[in-house]
Design brief:
single chain, about 90 residues, mainly alpha, two-stranded antiparallel ribbon, 3 helices, 4 strands, membrane
Length: about 90
């Protein structure tokens, strides 16, 4: 998921430029922005589906001298599609 930060910056830049370029009289402005964010969120999704990455792992959550706690989630296709969309739209 190395594309999350560039995708977030592209989303912010595109949403700012679209609000400047397009007039504010559109009734469907929110709908258009959500569609744009959804389409941009498909980039990391496409990358993770193409590379068959089905496991999300993190750095050790709790570091103690005796043990380290690591968390990893194994996902099937449906949550893998759902996570980027929900993160970018919310």
């Amino acid at each position: 998921m190395n594309l999350i930060i560039p995708t977030i910056t592209i989303t912010i830049i595109l949403s700012i430029t679209l609000t400047i370029i397009l007039p504010q009289t559109h009734i469907n402005e929110i709908k258009n922005k959500l569609i744009l964010i959804f389409l941009i969120s498909l980039a990391p999704l496409n990358s993770s589906l193409n590379h068959k990455e089905l496991t999300l792992s993190s750095v050790p959550l709790i570091l103690t001298p005796t043990e380290n706690i690591n968390i990893s989630f194994t996902l099937d296709t449906l949550p893998l599609i759902f996570i980027p969309v929900t993160l970018f739209i919310t």
